[in-house]
Specification:
176 residues, membrane, mainly alpha, DedA family protein, cell membrane, transmembrane, transmembrane helix
């Protein structure tokens, strides 16, 4: 997996025009209930954030692409939970990790709408909270507002963290 992401980072470095579409796809996969369990892409997003700072790729389109991808992934997960309710637990890979959906359900029950915002920043919860919100029929617009706002914050945090790492590494190299 690491090798595949390294190849993707190299691709973005060489073909900067593809940075936003690649980030959109990675953020979508990272936020989609089933895919994010199998392919954690946050590290690649941080690495692309480092490229943004180091190579002159424009931050704004990449940031917006990341937010749109993340919001679409959570929206689709919400829809899937809303549509298939309790049958979701029997679908692989969630059937292999029964506690994951239960944790997401407990989290949504306890925190309500803020769980969408909070859950986006915590690995396994990122995959299960939107699904649980759909299963429990969280009001659609309440979900979407939290979903979109958190997607913009999450995308900025990952990309800017990568940029900060890039700046820090450059400073360290220059001072040695």
């Amino acid at each position: 997996m690491e090798e595949a992401f390294r190849g993707l980072i190299d691709f973005v470095r060489e073909h900067q025009a593809w940075a936003a579409p690649v980030v959109l796809a990675l953020a979508f996969g990272e936020s989609l209930a089933f895919i994010s369990l199998l392919i954690p892409a946050w590290g690649a997003l941080v690495a692309i954030g480092a490229l943004v700072g180091a190579s002159g790729i424009s931050f704004w389109p990449v940031w917006i692409a990341g937010a749109v991808g993340a919001a679409l992934g959570d929206w689709l997960s919400y829809w899937f939970g809303y549509r298939y309710k309790n049958n979701v637990a029997q679908i692989w890979p969630l059937s292999k990790f029964p506690g994951l959906l239960t944790r997401g359900e407990d989290f949504v029950q306890k925190w309500g709408v803020p769980s969408i915002f909070i859950g986006r920043f915590f690995g396994p919860l990122r995959a299960s909270v939107p699904l649980a919100a759909g299963i429990f029929e969280m009001p659609y617009w309440s979900f979407q507002i939290a979903n979109v706002l958190s997607a913009f914050v999450w995308s900025a945090v990952l990309l800017l963290f990568g940029d900060a790492l890039s700046v820090g590494a450059t400073w360290l190299v220059r001072s040695i």
